[in-house]
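Sequence in, structure out. Go.
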Amino acid sequence: MLKASNKLMFVLVFWLACGNLLAGEKINKVLEVSADAEVEVHNTRGNITIEGWDKNQVVVKGELDDLTEKFVFETNDNKTLIKVVLPNRNSNARSGSGSDLQIFMPKSGRLQFGGVSTDIEVRKIDKEVDISSVSGDVKLTNIQGKAYINSVSGDIAINGVADRLNISTVSGDVDAKVSAQSIEVSGVSADIKVTTETIEFAQIETVSGNTSLRGQLTDTGSIRLSNVSGKSIYFSQAELNARIILDTGPGGDIVNRISNHEPSRSFIGSEKLKFTLGQGSAQIRMSTVSGDIELRPQN
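Output:
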């Protein structure tokens, strides 16, 4: 008979072996879902690509993280969960390779993603995309619905969001080319560049970063740009019907290249400029603390 210590060792080895059966495994799994399914994806590290298609299926292909302890792929009440589970504590947590997965889902569904040290790319989703990322780049292409992104330490590149765009980023640059009329972006240590077709509402706030916004302001639209220790530029269309209010803190400059109006300067070195173009039905407000603001015509 095996001694007690040998039995314990046998059980321990068997348990460890079972716990790592999924590590680095190649997978190709399919679930049938409804056309408006909600898909929730969680991954700790690696590369994830998610693409919408016309099939009422969710498909996961690729290779799991080398440290995978459990892989969850299930559907319940119209919600599909995809989750790569790693050990809570592991001295070798930084060893091996992360997940490399390609996911297909109904393009008319909703996507929610949470990742750490994961680069995520999403394409062709018509409803809603909600992404939370830590230390990973985010790329969106051809999103017809709403897009919400919360990112820490990762760059964000967007080519096509049609409905609403909402971004919060820390230590990651943003480059967005969209058709959304409602845009909200806040950033810390981030350069932000947004180009859209028409603007009904745009609010961009930055700390220690530069901002540029391009798009045609509607006659009832609103633009609010503010920064601390950075520069904000709005590239305007040829004709505006807007009330424009610009102000800086001490040491900040206002540059107005769309009219002959010039700012006034106070004894403490701050500048202000208020004027109206056209009927003044829209509004542009730009402010800065220890930075510059500028109005330019579009090229």
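Check: The helical segments are 4-19. The two ends are 86 Å apart (CA to CA).
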